[in-house]
From TrEMBL:
Name of the protein in its database record: Sulfatase-like hydrolase/transferase
Organism in which the protein naturally occurs: Frischella japonica
Keyword Membrane assigned: yes
UniProt keyword list: Membrane, Transmembrane, Transmembrane helix
CDD domains per record: sulfatase_like
Lineage: Bacteria, Pseudomonadati, Pseudomonadota, Gammaproteobacteria, Orbales
Length: 615
């Protein structure tokens, strides 16, 4: 066991030296504090990993304890050597793509459709692998000789081994405590380090920090640290032309809104409003994720939700929002649920002072009522000499809640018991409750529509009506309920309506809608920035989306994500990469298919995932 522990410590040292490559990528900016934190974080992370690996190896050695020692050494050399080689390959992958290696990346490389290894490269890899294993084997032999040296006192050996163990435990505690504090106060030079260390999940706890931060200083956090991140967003500084007649812009978003519940029966007020004002309805529109975080992120940034962690770590605001501010817009953010969970107060809206965090109320329906009242008050008291942007984010469908004084339009109806939901649960009573929640939001929205019509501003207003993601009712008969579970239509396809365009733009918008083109939340920001905020840059400077007011004919796939996975979605298939990096190829109903995915599409998606990183 002592031999294995010494071997473990040496490999922690080797791996930590290799891990330095993670922090040599272009664009990284480290200060003295972040370098010190990275030192402890890398040491503690590699120590934990090798400790687990050693426990596995110890169990294997017990099973073959009667075999010769040199075979034990060969086994350990192969296992630890392969681990070190994989770490080196991961540093190369991270340098190229800014994410860590996983089974999906290996499939992409080994497919031969994207990367074709030369004979020289294969030979070099073979020599590298063999060399590392031989070095590991030699080290094990030297450790055997060292432990057999009678001149060394056993007490001395135990002493420095204890000191090593105490040091690594200290590193583990110190790195987690420092990260927890830094994450709470959005200190980017520390928080950003998480991205560079593979499978690093340090401690975070708002509850623990709240005990020490009784004054709520976290609420006053803004980006005040002079820190250069490796994110290049935008690619080039935005150029904004003069706009003599700026349009008002409104986003109306329903949390968990299914695409099939926008209709004359379920949303009569919205449907009527859309018809009366020549709204353009897109019937093949998808969110950028199956969860609120990535759905709203894609809507406000026009880029994949996979960038969330980097933008959160660096408190990078939405260019759409900062452009609105530069063009002197009145900005009203009205969310029913807390805008700080997910942390849009530290991402999309971080540049907005005195941000309205949430609505008052003890239930989603109460909060939605107060959201509507607050918006009406804001709208009637706004500075009418300036254009306005408002974001109304309703929550009732997310919680299956609805106004209690409404007549039950759908029956039978039942409460939601998440613990009892299964593949055999009858969806009808639950779906009826959900449709009541959508109907309830639509009832409140009539006040918004009436106010807009009475204000006389509709002719000069662009309105986007959509959802952040969808809500499954076991549509695919695989036991999925709600969202954040898969990337089928039931969890990602949402209503999408545009009201207020005119002229050539309206013609092309209609043409795209009638052609049933594949559209995404990534398309909203570039379309509005280019045509209504007078941004003259090429769209590719700040978005990976498409211009909805121009022909869309060559889109074959969409990139979607959630808190821990991502998927490349085509009209017929889903290529999913899960939280531990394993890929699954499925049909549009989430059933595994025995086929080969189009790796060119996947490679294009990976390029979009690294597009805004400096490399």
């Amino acid at each position: 066991m002592k031999k294995l522990f010494i071997f473990l410590l040496l490999n922690v040292l080797f791996s930590s030296l290799v891990a330095i490559k993670y922090f040599l990528v272009p664009g990284i900016s480290l200060n003295c504090i972040s370098i010190l934190f990275a030192f402890f974080a890398v040491l503690s992370q590699t120590f934990i990993f090798y400790l687990l690996l050693s426990i596995i190896c110890f169990s294997l050695l017990l099973c073959i304890r009667k075999t010769p020692r040199f075979l034990h050494n060969i086994l350990l050399a192969v296992i630890f050597g392969a681990t070190l080689i994989m770490l080196y390959i991961d540093t190369v992958t991270f340098e190229q793509y800014r994410f860590h290696i996983n089974q999906s990346v290996l499939s992409l490389v080994l497919s031969g459709q994207v990367v074709d290894f030369s004979m020289a490269t294969c030979l070099l890899m073979f020599v590298l692998i063999l060399s590392v294993i031989l070095i590991e084997y030699t080290i094990l032999c030297l450790i055997d000789r060292y432990l057999n040296n009678q001149a060394l006192q056993a007490k001395t050996k135990r002493k420095w081994l204890k000191i090593s163990l105490i040091f690594f435990i200290f590193s583990l505690l110190m790195s987690n405590i420092v990260y927890m504090i830094s994450a709470y106060y959005a200190y980017a030079p520390i928080v950003v380090i998480k991205e560079y260390i593979p499978h690093y999940y340090p401690l975070t706890s708002k509850k623990i920090m709240g005990i020490f931060d009784k004054e709520g200083l976290q609420k006053n956090i803004r980006t005040t640290v002079n820190f250069k991140s490796n994110v290049i967003y935008p690619k080039h500084s935005l150029q904004i032309a003069s706009n003599p007649n700026p349009k008002n812009i409104i986003f109306i978003v329903l949390d968990s809104w299914r695409y099939d519940t926008f209709n004359q029966e379920n949303t009569p007020n919205t449907y009527k409003f859309v018809q009366q004002h020549d709204g353009v309805i897109f019937n093949n529109h998808y969110s950028t994720g199956n969860a609120t975080r990535t759905g709203i992120f894609g809507l406000f940034y026009g880029i994949p939700g996979t960038y969330w962690q980097s933008f959160f770590n660096n408190s990078i605001p939405s260019l759409f929002v900062t452009t609105l501010q530069k063009e002197n817009y009145n900005i009203g953010i009205f969310s029913s649920a807390k805008i700080s969970a997910p942390e849009f107060d530290r991402t999309a809206f971080v540049s907005i002072e005195n941000l309205r965090i949430n609505s008052a109320g003890n239930s989603a329906s109460e909060r939605d009522v107060n959201l509507t009242k607050d918006w009406l008050t804001w709208f009637n008291s706004r500075d009418t000499s300036r254009p306005s942007f408002s974001f109304l984010f309703y929550d009732q469908p997310h919680g299956y809640d609805f106004l209690k004084d409404l007549d039950l339009k759908y029956q039978p109806i039942s409460d939601i018991n998440y613990l009892s939901l299964s593949n055999d649960t009858n969806p009808e009573p639950i779906f009826n409750r959900y449709k009541m929640s959508v109907y309830s939001v639509d009832y409140l929205l009539q006040q918004v529509y009436t106010e807009l019509e009475n204000s006389g501003t509709l002719d000069n207003t662009i309105i986007i009506i959509t959802g952040d993601h969808s809500q499954e009712m076991n549509d695919n008969h695989m036991g999925f309920w709600g969202h954040n579970g898969n990337y089928t239509d039931a969890q990602t396809k949402v209503p999408f309506i545009v009201i207020g365009s005119n002229g050539e733009e309206a013609y092309q918008l209609n043409k795209n809608a009638l052609a049933n083109v594949l559209t995404s939340h990534e398309d909203v920001v570039p379309s509005l920035m280019k045509h209504y905020l007078s941004v003259t840059n090429d769209i590719q400077d700040y978005s990976t989306g498409y211009d909805l007011f121009r022909p869309i004919s060559n889109r074959n796939w969409l990139l979607m994500s959630n808190y821990s996975s991502y998927a490349v979605r085509t009209p017929k298939n889903i290529y999913l990469v899960n939280s531990v990096g394993f890929s699954h190829y499925m049909d549009q109903y989430n059933k595994t298919v025995d086929d080969v995915p189009n790796y060119q599409y996947i490679h294009q998606a990976l390029n979009n995932m690294k597009y805004f990183y400096e490399h």
